[in-house]
Amino acid sequence: MQLLPALNSGGVERGTVDFARALVRAGHQSIVISNGGRMVEQLQREGSQHITLPIHKKSLTSLLQVRPLRRLLHELNADILHVRSRVPAWLTYLAWKKMPEESRPRLLSTAHGLYSTNRYSAIMAKTEQVIAISKCVNDYLQENYPKDLQRPPQIVYRGVDTTEFHPEINLPADWMELTCSEFPQLQGKRWLLLPGRLTRWKGQEDFIELIAKLAPLNPQIHGVILGGSEANKVHYEQELKEKVQKLGIGDHISFVGHRSDIRYWYKQSTLVFNLSQRPEPFGRTVIEAAAIGTPIIGYDIGGPAESLQACFPQGLVNKGDQQMLLERTLELLEAPLLKPHLTEEFTLARQAAHTMEIYRTMLDSRKGAAQ
Fold first, then answer.
1. Residue 371's pLDDT is what?
2. CA-CA distance, 264 to 174, in Å (whole number)?
3. SS3 for 151?
4. What span, in angstroms and rounded, lies between the C-alpha atoms of 281 and 42?
5. Which of 83, 78, 91, 73 is nearest to 16 (CA)?
6. Top-level class of domain 2-159+347-370
7. Could you give the CA distance from residue 238 to residue 278 in angstroms, rounded to a whole number?
């Protein structure tokens, strides 16, 4: 049983749905509890059961869900509870704690982020076993929550589904035509892609400045900023567009918004960028682009740097070094045969297998204790 706030969009949600699919394929019963969202239909279509429960609100009223959740846990008799976010983790922990110790499920968490250091966040370290999604997250947990950890975290990198993201992927017959009719400036250009939601630390400003330097040197390049802005960040999107106009590169950058067909954008792009300004716990765009075979350039910080180091070390750039960023981009534009290689540890198959190994170890340790 996996528990998270909702199933709309984002890395945690994608990871939950991907892993649920892997559990079903391996013959297990997969249940997800959340407040619902647009990915529920896919989850159910792929064989998992979804139970809607409002376990998403950062509010004391959420404590009213502890008893209904405990009843559910008794009824469903799951072997494993796997929490993926702080509010669901607290509610699950409180429900689980009052169950009979000898018969309650094993409780795990996946730390998907570099959480603020406080008692509220400490819940992600209090479970029987913590999974860290990168060495970066593992180090952060060990440094900030040593007293809460029951045992050392296990590092399980997020994995990309190689049946969906792979080098032989073909663009649908009319995809280019439809895309270029929506964004005519893309026609006949070499696309440089920056995927990620529009927020100040995702690096869109560095990317715009890079395109401004590249445009006079290579008129064929075109920057593509892929990602939507949340309701409270619309002003930032406007700021970025004003910056593009101020630099006079309106013909060299397109804002294409949120896309559900991102794998085709990776495939059609010459280079993909990850320019986060602060350490990210992982950085899924790096491994997705690597799986497609498109070279990636990224700053040498956080989780994305770990993925790059493994899959395409030629793309690593010192954070904030604009000259190095420009030079590396020019180098890779002239090296079309240099391609990334997705290592096994970043595949969904390995992620799922490793996670299930951890489940089995925990269940076996209980059996051993009972004998």
1. 47
2. 12
3. coil
4. 26
5. 83
6. alpha beta
7. 22
Q: CB atoms < 10 A from the CB of 125, how many?
A: 21
Both tokens of residue 107? 């409780």
Residue type, position 199, single letter:
T
Average of pLDDT values for 98-105?
92
Buried b (16+ CB within 10 A) or exposed e, 312-328: beebbbebeeeebbbeb
Confidence of residue 152 (pLDDT cuts 50, 70, 90): very high
Strands 80-83 and 106-111: parallel
Residue 25, helix vs strand vs coil:
helix
- CA–CA gap between residue 195 and residue 265 (Å, rounded): 9
pLDDT for 10 beyond 90: no
- The 10s digit of each residue's pLDDT in 51-70 is 999 999 888 898 999 999 99
C-beta of residue 132 within 8 angstroms of C-beta of residue 141? yes
* Sheet hosting strand 154-155, strand order edge to edge: 49-52, 31-34, 2-3, 80-83, 106-111, 129-132, 154-155
Task: Please determine, for residue 228, whether its predicted confidence score (pLDDT) is greater than 90.
Answer: no
CA distance 133 to 153: 10
Query: Binning pLDDT at 50, 70 and 90, where does residue 350 land?
Result: very high
The pLDDT of residue 290: 98
Task: Tell me how far apart the alpha carbons of residues 307 and 12 are, in angstroms, rounded to a whole number.
Answer: 17
- The amino acid occupying position 49 is Q
The sign of the dihedral angle between the CA atoms of 138, 11, 341, 161 is positive
DSSP state of 194: E
Output the CA angle 9-15-21, nearest 5 degrees.
Answer: 110
- The predicted structure's pLDDT at residue 260: 86
CATH 3.40.50.2000 domain range(s) in the chain: 2-159+347-370, 175-346
Strand order in the sheet with 221-226: 253-257, 221-226, 190-195, 269-274, 296-299, 316-317
The CA-based angle 273-233-201, given to 5 degrees, is 35
Q: Is the confidence at residue 368, as pLDDT, over 70?
A: no
Measured between alpha carbons, how far is 30 from 2 in angstroms, rounded to an integer?
8
Distance of CA 345 to the CA centre of its chain: 15
CATH number of 175-346: 3.40.50.2000
Fill in the amino acid letter for 280: E
- Partners of 297 in the beta sheet? 273
Q: How far is CA 271 from the centre of its chain?
A: 20
